[in-house]
Design brief:
homodimer, 493 residues, Rossmann fold, 2 domains, 5-stranded parallel β-sheet, 10 strands, 12% strand
């Protein structure tokens, strides 16, 4: 029952006033500590229409430096947004390190509304609950404080407030159609809200049900919970996070050493196959577009292994309006100060589109691991986070193809030397490439671990033997076309 | 759906054999590492009747040193066990550090059976799910590896196996009445099992659904999950655990400094009230016994504050068959090597009984904190663990009374000196008492924090002013009788 989650006895007016002062004082001190320790805080304001969310939000932020927070009112998703995975809108909004972000209606609002208006199946609902639980946990694991408030008033109280608002033109605009509908279907809504909160009420990220009958008392509950939450999060900030055992179905993969790099293709065969496969792909992409299947192609591999050329042969077959290539460099400051997957969430394709990533989210367990750009705890946790990320994409209906373009050390040396000695290729080779080459063995070890731990049945790695670049291109095109054919066959409608 | 949790493609017979050998080899190495790092592992074997749990358990333990594991078949709870909180049977069975414990049917079995036979209400079911989630999380937070296996076979397969077992007298005894019932109600059971697993399937302690059609393949799934789980747990063993923000309703409490210790009572008044209150308590206990209300009284306080005498005045009113006093000293090795609350779980009263604790589970946030007997992370996490523990007891229907017997520093000195100078009291004073006294200020700080963070509405602290011991005794008796009266009024039937 909504009311019983954490009902605290209400103090008298004087005590409320006194404690509010203390809480605001504490919060104003905390925002500096947050800045110092780079703690990001995501605060969800959910609850009944006319429960006073806006007013209380106004009170809470009074104490905050405007540079430290932002508040967003999320409305129903647009047609464009509906073509992205469910969590995209919410990932997009997560705050930067040291910042507050207030969401006035977030994932709870969207999920429960879709249930109430019968816009989502039981299956979708269950999937979304799972997504939300993983999303919230992953934010917390990555150092976020997530606080979820539900502003609760009784049916009677809501009716009274709506009637009062309706009385004058100055206030009646505040009543939305949904507020009216919600009030007329209060009991039905209650059940759906209660169920949602029960299913997403975890020890680590619980719901705080705010008794919102009195505004000052509601403000105090929010303020004290917020202050206590920041206290705990600041303590947790220096802690490591326990690892999670894998639950995703893995495919047994070979080690890089076991790959036969002698595979090659003749020039004629190459030309013939290339043309054939590209034509096929063009057709398949048209069908995928009509059926709304998104395709995500992730490229990783050794320097000079032939990533660029491989990608080119793929995009050559695609309608430019239907794909985008994302070259992934080291994260910019505004990217680095968010969850490491944020910059990929905001780059996801729409349904029916291709997104091709030239280097990917796997940087975490390769370069970031080896160069010490993240903690050991961070990259060890990442295998599961990456599998979870791709599970979201797969559940959404995406075809996910991950290519490791593979060459041996000698081939790399030959290509580096060639680049160095050929003026028009010199831009392609940097000191960093040589430095990375020195760490070949460490990289090989990291790549073997990555491939073993993230080759799930729904998003396996494909190793492209690229000593012969042409062979690798044909193999990539074959895998893309075959996977698309399979996905088209499985997708109804 | 049960099947889809983590279905892995089944390898061929040769590969199964090969991988089984590797897994057994790894496990036999791991048991020594486990011993060294004191990792306890609790393994739940749940699943369909005739799914082969016993056979596979037999295979798994073949690799283990008999000193390192034990296996228990839990049957339906006895009448005695039903008079304890639901989790008691399972807490009792948790392994010691460095040990494996296999539970052949655990909390899932009991909860789902009660649903199937309509022995538990929806409310009870929900409460139990919450209890289980907290139980599993708390074990993990305290360094346990918890692995939950569900052995899955289809209805057809189960029917086939039961028929085969029934054919001969040598095997037919293996079929239980419940196996037959389960087979006849397979679809109904499926729904209940699936729902339970879905509701208790968390990222950190997931269900592993074992495809149990082929025994060797089932064994491999169990073995590889077990080995991977121990790998992760060994890595986590050195990590700290993030703190959890409080969700329990707290009562605002005064600091010890603010307590007025001048309160006293005259001798006549004391005698009169004592007699009256003890008679009243005797009556109330009879009623509580008949209504099955358990009462837990927890005593903490300064050395020489008068705990012993206070407890005596309480027990004097009780039927000796209806109460037990547990003096709590520092934990014995077999207690220290388990979850810190284990030794209290096994000392809980039956319904209708009193359990009086002379020192308590709060040692964690007092002496263990101050003497460094546990890590900072341990005692910081404990406030929530203690609130959760008492929530279990409160949900079970227990009256929980926590007394802090309070005196000032001068009074303690006077009593210490008196003990030192009176031959028949000398046994009551030790060097440790003097050492603790030197840390008075640190203790006071810890006690203030403890009282502030664990005075929940369902189990608040009561501060007994005990400069006048008689005053404190009367106050304790008043609180016990009033609380019992209230509980009796609220309890129907």
């Amino acid at each position: 029952m909504i009311e019983t989650y954490n009902a605290i006895p209400k103090p008298d007016t004087d005590e409320i006033k006194q404690r509010l002062e203390i809480a605001h004082q504490r919060l104003s001190e905390q925002q500096l500590l947050m800045k110092d320790s780079k703690l990001p805080v995501l605060i969800l304001f959910e609850g009944w229409g006319a429960a006073g969310k806006g007013t209380i939000l106004g009170q809470v932020i009074k104490t905050l430096d405007p540079r430290f927070f932002s508040a967003v009112s999320l409305h129903d998703p647009s047609t464009e947004e509906k073509r992205k995975p469910f969590l995209t809108r919410f990932y997009t909004e997560i705050p930067e390190a040291g910042q507050f972000k207030f969401l006035d209606v977030g994932w709870m609002g969207e999920i429960t509304k879709d249930v109430l208006f019968e816009r989502s199946s039981k299956h979708t609902y269950k999937n979304r609950i799972g997504s939300v639980l993983r999303f919230e946990r992953s934010l917390t694991d990555n150092g976020y404080l997530v606080l979820k408030f539900f502003f609760h008033i009784s049916h009677k109280e809501q009716s009274k407030r709506l009637a009062a608002l309706a009385e004058s033109k100055d206030t009646s605009w505040q009543i939305s159609d949904f507020d009216v509908w919600e009030n007329e279907h209060y009991d039905e809504c209650y059940k759906v809200y209660d169920k949602f909160m029960e299913e997403t009420n975890t020890s680590t990220i619980p719901w705080y049900v705010i008794d919102a009958k009195s505004k000052k008392w509601a403000e105090l509950q929010v303020m004290e919970t917020l202050v206590a939450g920041i206290d705990v999060a600041l303590k947790n900030h220096t802690l490591t996070v326990p690892l999670i055992q894998n639950i995703f179905p893995l495919i047994k993969m070979p080690k890089l050493k076991e790959i036969d790099l002698k595979k090659s293709i003749s020039d004629e065969e190459y030309k013939l196959e290339l043309k054939e496969l590209q034509t096929k792909l063009r057709n398949l992409h048209n069908q995928a577009y009509r059926k709304g299947i998104p395709i995500i192609v992730a490229y990783e591999g050794w320097d000079a292994a032939g990533k660029g050329g491989n990608i080119k042969r793929l995009t050559a077959a695609l309608d430019p309006r239907g794909y985008i290539v994302h070259p992934i460099a080291s994260p910019k400051p505004f990217e680095k100060s968010r969850h490491h997957l944020w910059r990929f969430w905001i780059r996801l394709p729409k349904t029916g589109h291709f997104a091709i990533f030239d280097r990917t989210w796997y940087g975490r367990v390769m370069v970031e691991r080896l160069e010490g750009f993240c903690s050991e705890n961070d990259w060890q946790r990442a295998y599961n986070e990456l599998n979870e990320f791709e599970k979201e994409l797969s559940d959404w209906g995406a075809v996910i193809l991950k290519f490791w373009i593979h060459i041996d050390k000698d081939t790399q040396l030959a290509r580096f030397t060639d680049r160095q000695n050929t003026p028009e290729k010199q831009w392609k080779i940097t000191d960093e490439d040589w430095r990375n080459r020195e760490k070949w063995d460490l990289y090989e070890q990291a790549v073997d671990e990555m491939i073993a731990k993230t080759s799930t049945t729904y998003a396996p790695w494909h190793i492209l033997e690229s000593n012969d670049k042409k062979y690798a291109r044909i193999k990539a095109l074959k895998i893309v076309t075959e996977s698309l054919e399979k996905a088209l066959k499985e997708k109804k409608g």
